[in-house]
Design brief:
Helix content is about 50%, strand content about 10%. By secondary structure, the chain is mainly alpha-helical. Helix 4 packs antiparallel against helix 5. Strand 1 and strand 2 form a beta hairpin. The longest helix is centred in the middle third of the chain and has 15 residues. The protein is flat and about 65 Å long. Strands 1-2 form a two-stranded antiparallel ribbon.
Length: about 130
């Protein structure tokens, strides 16, 4: 293997450390000592977070329906596809989509773009 490393251009071979850790625990220890700065994260402030801050005071039974309708007005394709926001919490977003005609592809299953919309909207809210 060292013969292969010698054949690499200098630019690539300099990224390989000269001495690898002897044990896996040594490698993990060096990675866990890196400082993390969670205080540098800025809170998100957009239309969705404003809607969430208003609807969090609603009764739990009505919150999902009202959120789904409100997001459908803000993002027209969300309203067209009928995305339903079941749970929207800081660490969990659960969205669902019924397999009806507006979201079906040519073989009758949910279109890939509609599935992507689910992932995108869930990520935007988390």
């Amino acid at each position: 293997m060292s013969g292969l490393l010698n054949k690499l251009p200098n630019k690539l071979s300099t990224k390989i450390p000269a001495k690898l850790p002897e044990k896996i625990s040594d490698a993990l220890t060096s990675q866990t000592n890196t400082p993390s700065t969670p205080s540098s994260l800025k809170p998100v402030n957009n239309q969705f977070t404003k809607l969430l801050s208003i609807t969090k005071y609603l009764p739990a039974g009505a919150r999902s329906t009202i959120l789904s309708k409100a997001f459908g007005k803000v993002v027209p394709y969300v309203g067209t596809t009928g995305v339903y926001y079941e749970t929207v919490e800081p660490n969990q977003v659960v969205v669902s989509l019924h397999n009806n005609k507006p979201v079906q592809n040519h073989i009758g299953s949910i279109h890939a773009v509609a599935v992507t919309l689910l992932a995108e909207t869930a990520k935007a809210l988390s």
